[in-house]
Write a structure and sequence with these properties.
Helix 2 crosses helix 4. A hairpin with a 2-residue loop joins strand 10 and strand 11. The protein starts with 12 loop residues before the first strand and ends in a 6-residue tail after the last strand. Helix content is 31%, strand content 22%. Bound molecules: benzoic acid (BEZ).
Length: 212
């Protein structure tokens, strides 16, 4: 069965380009992005892994560990990594899991047989420090993912985990955020010292609480 938001993300131990990895040990008490791609030595996947490597410092700043996975073998991953570094002008130093036996793909339902019987689709999971699934997305092989969007969601998840707010459509760092419905307007005015802008009783904005 597929994983749903709030489910515990399955732990696993697997071979990777960075050695044997135990997922829970690797992510420790931080956040994780686990993402699959269809196959090594393919163009879209090459750009995705390159982009992820170039955003290394952005993931680190947010205490996020990144792991890629496909069903290709380790020796193929190792050779492809050189190509990614060369063509995308980056250094891939996050683990690429060699899931030849499709164990991780099975746990995370990354193979969608009506798309491909054998290859993983472009699945992406964000997992929180409590090891629970916070976001999942699935893209087809023909469409590369937007990793700035992944960072944007992480920012929203990390802020909304700490404050009683939600983020509106197209929210980005520095924009006003929404007071969650569970907080009364009376309490919101006390709680959010930067002010509350009441558009409707259910639509209330406040400046981003974790920004100076
Ligand atoms: C790619 O990464 O370019 C790709 C992989 C599988 C099917 C189509 C495209």
């Amino acid at each position: 069965m597929s994983l749903r938001l709030g489910d515990i993300a399955p732990d696993f131990t697997a071979q990777s380009t960075e050695g044997e990895i135990n997922f829970y040990d690797f992510i420790a008490d931080g956040w994780a992005v686990l993402f699959s791609h269809p196959a090594d030595f393919t163009p879209v996947c090459t750009t995705e892994l390159g982009r992820t490597a170039l955003l290394k410092h952005e993931f680190e700043k947010r205490n996020v560990k990144v792991l890629a996975v496909s069903v290709d073998p380790l020796d193929k991953h190792m050779l492809w990594k050189k190509d990614i570094n060369e063509t995308q002008n980056c250094t891939v130093d996050f683990p690429i899991i060699a899931d030849e036996n499709k164990v991780v793909a099975g746990f995370y339902d990354m193979i969608h047989p009506n798309s491909s019987e054998t290859f993983t689709v472009r699945s992406l999971f964000i997992i929180g420090p409590d090891k629970k699934l916070k976001l999942s997305l699935t893209y087809p092989a023909s469409t590369g993912r937007n990793f700035m969007e992944v960072l944007r969601v992480i920012d929203s998840l990390q802020m909304t985990a700490k404050h009683s707010v939600a983020t509106p459509a197209d929210w980005k760092q520095g924009d006003d955020v929404i007071v969650v419905p569970a907080v009364s307007t009376e309490d919101a005015i006390k709680k959010f010292s930067k002010g509350v802008n009441i558009i409707k009783p259910y639509l209330r904005y406040t400046p981003q609480p974790d920004k100076d």
